[in-house]
Write a structure and sequence with these properties.
Layout (H helix, E strand, L loop, with lengths): L4 E6 L4 E8 L3 E9 L1 H5 L6 H23 L8 E7 L3 H18 L3 E5 H15 L9 E6 L4 E9 L2 E9 L5 H11 L7 H7 L24 H7 L1 H7 L5 H11 L4 H8 L7 H4 L5 H29 L3 E5 L6 H14 L3 E2 L3 H4 L4 H13 L18
Parallel strand pairs: 1-4, 4-5, 6-9, 9-10
Antiparallel strand pairs: 1-2, 2-3, 6-7, 7-8
Helix pairs in contact: 2-3, 4-15, 5-9, 9-12, 12-13
Bound molecules: 5'-O-[(R)-(carboxyoxy)(hydroxy)phosphoryl]adenosine and zinc ion.
C-alpha cells in the first residue's frame, strides 16, 4: 500500500520546478526556480538558454523539494514529469532526470500533460481548502503565454477525460499581453505590467474589435450542432489574438516608447512607481482599453462555451489567470449565472510542479505509468 507521495517535475518552459504532493490533495513542498531575469533581457524565452538553465537548476531544485517536504527519496511512491507541450530541449531535461530517478529508485514514472497540470492546480487547491468537488463536467479555460484553450473535463473512477472545445488560432492570450507590453517598452513578461498599469488608464479611450470566429450554422442551430458535429464545436469556441496586437501596434508609434525604454534601461528592476510616471494618459488609456477588450473577449468565449456544453462549473488556470480584471469580471459573471468558478492562487497560476504531481495522482491510483523510454512531445495535445 502506498501513501500517495508523488514528486512532480516541471521544465517545459522557463521555470525549473519540483514539488511533493500527497494524494493530489496536500502540498508538502513546491519549489520554483524562475529564469525570468535571464530571458527578460531578450524580451522573451530563448530556448537554448532555457535548456541550459534547467540543466543547472534541476538537481538543486529537486533536492530542495525533498528537503522542504521532510522526506527521503525512498519515501516516494512515484515520479511525475511534464511530457509536453513545451520547448523540446527544456522538457528533455526534466524527463531525463525523472526517468533516471525512477529507474534508480525502482519507482513508477508518470507522464503528465502540462495543460492537464494547469487544470489540476485549481483542483488541488480546492481539496486543500476542503472545498466540495465541483459537479461535472467542468469547463476549463487555460490561458498562458503559450496556450489559450477551452476544455470540457470529466472524471469517472479516477480517470479524467478532456475534450478540447476551443483554442487560439494564432497567438496565445499571454503572448498578446507580452507583445503589447513589449511594443510599449515595458518589461518581460508583460502581463503583470499591463495588469498593474491598466487601473491607471481610461478603458474607454480606444475601441478595439476582436475577431469574430463563427461557424455558419452556429447561431441559427446551436442545439443541433451540440448533438451532431464535434467539428462544429471544435471551431466555434476558438479565439484569435493577432488582430488586437496589430491594432495596438498602429496606436503605439506615437506614444513616447523610446523615451520610456531609454529611461527604464537605467533601472535594473523597475517597479510600478518607476514606470507609472513614464506613461502618459494616452499610453495608460491604451493599456486599459487593451486589457478590457481581451478580458471581455475571454469572458464571452468562456461563458458561451459553458452554455453550449452544459458545464456545471468553471476553472481558470495558466499565467494569465493571475490577471486581476480577468478574475474579478469572470467571477462576477459566474455569480450572476449561478455557476461555481475557481482560480488558482497566484503561485499556482504560473508554471509549477505541484500541479504536475496533483495531475499524476489519479494515474497512480489506476496504475497508469509511462514507458521507461518516455520522450518529450513538444506539440502534445490534451484530449480529443
Ligand atoms: O503559465 P505560464 O507561467 O507559462 C506558460 O505556460 O506560458 O504563463 C506565463 C504568461 C505570460 O505570458 C505572462 O505575461 C502571463 O502569463 N501573465 C499575465 C499575468 N501574470 C502572468 N497576464 C496577464 N496578467 C497577469 N497578471
Ligand atoms: Zn504553463
Amino acid at each position: 500500500m502506498h501513501s500517495g507521495l508523488i514528486l512532480g517535475i516541471e521544465s517545459s518552459c522557463d521555470e525549473t520546478a519540483a514539488a511533493i504532493v500527497r494524494s493530489g490533495s496536500e502540498t508538502l513542498s513546491n519549489v520554483v526556480s524562475s529564469q525570468i531575469a535571464l530571458h527578460s533581457i531578450y524580451g522573451g524565452v530563448v530556448p537554448e538558454l532555457a535548456s541550459r538553465e534547467h540543466l543547472r537548476n534541476i538537481v538543486p531544485v529537486i533536492r530542495e523539494a525533498i528537503a522542504r517536504a521532510g522526506i527521503r527519496f525512498s519515501d516516494l511512491d512515484a515520479i511525475a514529469v511534464t511530457e509536453g507541450p513545451g520547448l523540446a530541449g527544456a522538457l528533455l531535461v526534466g524527463i531525463t532526470y525523472a526517468k533516471t530517478l525512477a529507474f534508480a529508485l525502482g519507482k513508477p514514472l508518470i507522464a503528465v500533460n502540462h495543460l492537464e497540470g494547469h487544470i489540476h492546480a485549481v483542483l488541488l487547491e480546492m481539496r486543500e481548502r476542503q472545498q466540495a468537488a465541483f459537479e461535472l463536467p467542468i469547463l476549463a479555460l487555460v490561458v498562458s503565454g503559450g496556450h489559450t484553450h477551452l476544455y470540457l473535463a470529466s472524471e469517472h473512477a479516477s480517470a479524467w477525460t478532456y475534450r478540447n472545445i476551443g483554442r487560439t488560432l494564432d497567438d496565445a492570450a499571454g503572448e498578446a499581453f507580452d507583445k503589447v507590453a513589449k511594443l510599449l517598452g515595458l518589461g518581460y513578461p508583460g502581463g503583470p505590467w499591463i495588469d498593474a498599469l491598466a487601473p491607471h488608464g481610461d478603458a474607454n479611450d480606444v475601441e478595439f474589435r476582436m475577431a469574430q470566429i463563427k461557424l455558419k450554422n452556429h447561431r441559427t442551430t446551436p442545439s443541433v450542432a451540440v448533438q451532431t458535429s464535434t467539428e462544429i464545436h471544435d471551431r466555434h469556441h476558438d479565439f484569435s489574438f493577432s488582430g488586437i496586437k496589430t491594432a495596438v501596434l498602429r496606436h503605439v508609434e506615437t506614444h513616447g516608447i523610446n523615451a520610456r525604454r531609454e529611461a527604464l534601461s537605467h533601472i535594473p528592476t523597475p517597479t510600478l512607481a518607476d514606470i507609472l510616471p513614464l506613461c502618459d494618459p494616452a499610453t495608460l488609456g491604451l493599456i486599459a482599453s487593451f486589457q478590457r477588450t481581451v478580458v471581455s473577449y475571454l469572458l464571452r468565449g468562456t461563458f458561451a462555451a459553458a452554455e453550449s456544453y452544459g458545464a456545471r462549473a468553471i476553472v481558470v488556470s495558466g499565467g494569465v489567470a493571475a490577471n486581476r480584471e480577468l478574475r474579478t469580471r469572470l467571477t462576477a459573471e459566474a455569480v450572476r449565472r449561478g455557476l461555481p468558478i475557481a482560480f488558482p492562487s497566484l503561485a499556482l497560476s504560473t508554471d509549477n510542479a505541484a500541479m504536475i504531481a496533483a495531475a499524476a495522482w489519479p494515474r497512480l491510483q489506476r496504475g497508469v505509468f509511462a514507458p521507461a523510454d518516455l520522450q518529450a512531445t513538444a506539440q502534445l495535445r490534451l484530449g480529443a
